[in-house]
Amino acid sequence: MLGRSTTAISRVYRVWNPQGLLLLSLLQSTASISSLKVVWRKDPKLDQAIENDKKWRLCARVVREVLNEPGQAIPLRYLAKRRERLRLPVSIEVFLARYPGLFDTYKDRIRPNSDFVDFLRPSDRLNRFLEEEKMIHEKNEILIVSKLCKLLMMAKDRVVSADKLVEVKREFGFPNDFLVMVVSKYPESFRLHGAPGEGKSFLELVSWNDEFAKSVIEKRAEEESTLTGIRVRPAFNWKLPRGFVLKKEMREWIRDWMELPYISPYNDVSHLDQASPEMEKRSVGVFHELLSLSVYKRVPVPILGKFCEEYRFSNAFSSVFTRHSGIFYMSRKGGIHTAMLREAYNGEELIDRDPLLEIRDKFVELLDQGQQQRADQLRLEKEMIRMDLELMAKRNQKLNCEDHDIEI
Fold it and tell me: What's the CA gap between 286 and 288, in Å, rounded?
């Protein structure tokens, strides 16, 4: 029924307003958006990008567990009991053998009169990395401030829950103490309300910064305009991987949707209807900007869902990532839905590198050094065994010769 009525309207509309055909097309496609389904398809290369980070993320969880303990030390048996929560696939003893150099083991008492047990504490090598991490954060402080400002500038009323920001600090590369060490240094930009950790703490943007009020999409259009001398309209890069096919009606809907004017995520959209095509365009722009601000150009969907109120996301916001599968990819790797920005990756390699990725690189280097140390130790042990076997063989040969001489 809807299809016949819109076709009839189209004929009338063509006579009365030929210039308005695009608008009608958009209205038609928007009316049936809920019926347009895009089948999720696996992208092995983008899934592999997540898999490649699995090892160091596992190690980082264990490191954080130890660092969060009083005195940054923990009894080995206590850590072993947390294996399931840490999602460790092996015992803590096997983990420590695989990744030497992260911790030092020493004997201490849990209570004054108890027996001595094994404790773990950060190794000198890990402490050097932590100092390097601190210096990288300090070197990129202006970048961190700009990210915080942008997160607040996109939010309703320019306010975001401080507790939520703490939960996503690793996604955007913020240091652990950013609410104290960074926010407090820039009172002209931020105001913290309440005490973090109590669920009623908020970070407010004090002053608007026009320098930060341009999205990645807008900056790219400006750069292309400057380079070519032709005004380039801000637009999303839309490209599906090879072998991915959309149904005809979805291709038409996407084509018309892409013709809608780009709406900056920093614009005030309080006047827009939540179900309007313009609001969909704005939501995609916000997700694009959020993923662009993240260190790895990907964020778990449940984490994005925490900000529905601040960024005016609908309850069904996650469908955006499959509906606009030429812009995003939603990975299901590891049983967690993760929204990824397609344009930031070349296959499984991240090409749009955030300066704060240097921290990850340093940590991976630390792990590689430990594993090289383990490999060298195993090689030395094998060499010692081989030498012992050769020595035993020579002794046996000598004894056999002596026995032969005695018989003669």
Answer: 5
Q: What are phi and psi of 141, to 5 degrees?
A: -60, -40
What does R_g of the chain's alpha carbons equal in angstroms?
A: 29
Task: Copy the structure tokens of residue 64.
Answer: 């954080």
Helix or strand (DSSP H, E) at 121: strand 116-122
Ranges in the chain annotated CATH 1.10.10: 140-209
- Domain 140-209, CATH: 1.10.10
Q: What is the DSSP string of 342-377?
A: GGGEETTEE-S--TTHHHHHHHHHHHHHHHHHHHHH
pTM over 0.85: no
Which range of 42-46, 85-89, 355-359, 402-406 scores highest in mean pLDDT? It is 355-359
* Residue 56, pLDDT score: 93
- Closest by Cα among 275, 305, 318 to 38: 318
**Per-residue CA distances from 251 to 13, 29, 235, 257, 262 (Å):** 23, 11, 17, 10, 19
Give tens-digit pLDDT for 271-301. Answer: 888 778 888 899 999 999 999 999 999 999 9
Instruction: Work out the mean pLDDT of the chain and round it to a whole number.
Output: 85
Helix (H) or strand (E) holding 279: helix 277-293
Q: Position of tokens 């009608």?
A: 24
Residues in CB range of 383: below 8 A, 6 or more apart: none
Q: Residue 367: which residues within 8 A CB-CB, separation 6 or more?
A: 55, 56, 59, 99, 102
Q: Computed from CA positions of residues 200, 201, 207, 213, in that sequence, does the dihedral angle turn out positive or negative?
A: negative
